[in-house]
């Protein structure tokens, strides 16, 4: 596995690749969710590049940048074992050298609701760093997790709006055996908080079960999730949402698709999770036909 530290090195590596390149952007503290993106990339492309960059721009004041877990040695071991071909490890100065003055913004409703309502500068940080990383990687396919649903929708829109030459591939959420979505931040949960946190995925299951039973009223789906969360006092709920994929506006009635999502604080740990309702089956499989995705998840339209 090659280690690339500067943009010039990364570009040289990219130019030397003759086949299809897959790209996975991460902030490190890697777990099996990140590796699922890499596995999918390896199944669908000829060489896979992973970046590790803890992006300060996407953390607001008072958020957990200082506490965010870091373990570069373990990350490099995991990537090597999982078969990454190269890892891009830019420093803050490489990504944001003195005089860096540019921001990339996706405007409109996608960046106003849910996470954006609680973290107003977050998506500006995400879209700015991902634009730069995509410029460096020049990847045929770029893999992003469905766990960060709003981020995935925003990045799909970014790639489409700016005609960035890559295909965004959504990868289903990887969960622990008890249902908790894997997240770098889970390491901060003590055993009692860890157990309490499973209420988030149980709440999403409850909403999805109602949807599968034919319920289409947004309030009833939100309430089904909310009732599970209300029974768990350690969970401080920020939102329970049942929203349209293209605008993230709350739905009175669900049509074909919806995103049910939850954000909560458990102690000082920020957790998010979601279920996508009404998506075609089989999306998680390598070489799945992305043409059957709803327009909000297609970067190629
Ligand atoms: P992060 O390092 O948290 O910025 O995440 C890097 C990428 O991994 C993003 O595309 C995330 O959506 C994705 N990711 C994080 N956790 C999971 C998970 N549990 N399952 C699938 N993808 C994930």
Q: What is the fold's blueprint, element by element?
A:
Elements lengths: L1 E3 L2 H9 L5 E6 L5 H13 L2 E6 L19 H11 L3 E3 L3 H4 L19 H4 L3 H16 L3 E5 L3 H13 L5 E5 L19 H22 L5 H13 L4 E9 L14 E9 L2 E9 L24
Helix pairs in contact: 6-7, 8-9
Bound molecules: adenosine monophosphate.
The site of adenosine monophosphate has 17 residues, from helix 2 and strand 5.
Which descriptors would you attach to this protein?
301 residues; alpha/beta; six-stranded parallel beta sheet; 18% strand; globular
**What is the N-to-C succession of helices and strands?**
EHEHEHEHHHEHEHHEEE
Task: Please count the helical segments.
Answer: 9
Query: Could you name the ranges where pLDDT drops below 50 across 5 or more consecutive residues?
Result: none
Determine the oligomeric state from the structure: single chain
Broad shape: globular
Helix content: 25-40%
- The tally of strands reads 9
Strand content: 15-25%
The side-by-side strand order for the widest beta sheet comes to 1-4-3-2-5-6
Compute the gyration radius: what is it?
A: 19 Å
The small-molecule ligands in this entry are: adenosine monophosphate
Structural class: alpha/beta
Largest sheet: 6 strands, parallel
Average predicted confidence as pLDDT: 97
Beginning-to-end CA distance, first to last residue: 34 Å
How would you describe what is shown here?
The chain is an alpha/beta fold. The two termini are 34 Å apart. Helix content is 35%, strand content 18%. It has helices at 7-15, 32-44, 72-82, 92-95, 115-118, 122-137, 149-161, 191-212, 218-230; strands at residues 2-4, 21-26, 47-52, 86-88, 141-145, 167-171, 235-243, 258-266, 269-277. It has a six-stranded parallel β-sheet with strand order 1-4-3-2-5-6, sandwiched between helices. The chain has a three-stranded antiparallel β-sheet with strand order 7-8-9, covered by helices on one side.
């Amino acid at each position: 596995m090659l280690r690339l530290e500067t943009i010039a090195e990364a570009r040289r590596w990219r130019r030397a690749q003759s086949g299809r390149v897959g790209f996975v952007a991460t902030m490190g503290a890697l777990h099996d969710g990140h590796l699922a993106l890499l596995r999918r990339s390896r199944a669908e492309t000829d060489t896979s590049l992973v970046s590790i960059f803890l992006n300060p721009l996407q953390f607001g004041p008072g958020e957990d940048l200082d506490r965010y877990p870091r373990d570069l040695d373990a990350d490099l071991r995991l990537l090597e074992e999982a078969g990454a071909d190269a890892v891009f490890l830019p420093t803050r100065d490489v990504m944001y050298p003195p005089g860096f003055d540019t921001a990339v913004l996706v405007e409109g409703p996608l960046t106003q609701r849910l996470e954006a309502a609680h973290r107003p500068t977050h998506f500006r940080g995400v879209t700015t760093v991902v634009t730069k990383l995509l410029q460096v990687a020049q990847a045929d396919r770029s893999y992003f997790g469905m766990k960060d649903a709003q981020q995935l929708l925003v990045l799909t829109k970014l790639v489409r709006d700016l005609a960035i030459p890559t295909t965004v591939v959504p990868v289903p959420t990887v969960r622990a055996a008890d249902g908790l979505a894997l997240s770098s931040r889970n390491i901060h949960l003590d055993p009692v908080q860890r157990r309490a946190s499973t209420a988030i995925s149980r709440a999403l299951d409850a909403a999805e079960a109602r949807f599968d039973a034919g319920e289409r009223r947004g309030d009833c789906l939100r309430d089904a999730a909310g009732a599970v969360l209300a029974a768990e006092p350690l969970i401080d709920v920020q939102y329970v949402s049942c929203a349209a994929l293209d605008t993230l506006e709350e739905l009175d009635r669900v049509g074909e698709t919806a995103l049910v999502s939850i954000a909560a604080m458990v102690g000082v740990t920020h957790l998010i999770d979601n279920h996508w309702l009404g998506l075609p089956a089989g999306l998680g499989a390598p070489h799945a036909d992305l043409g059957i995705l709803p327009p909000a998840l297609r970067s190629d339209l």
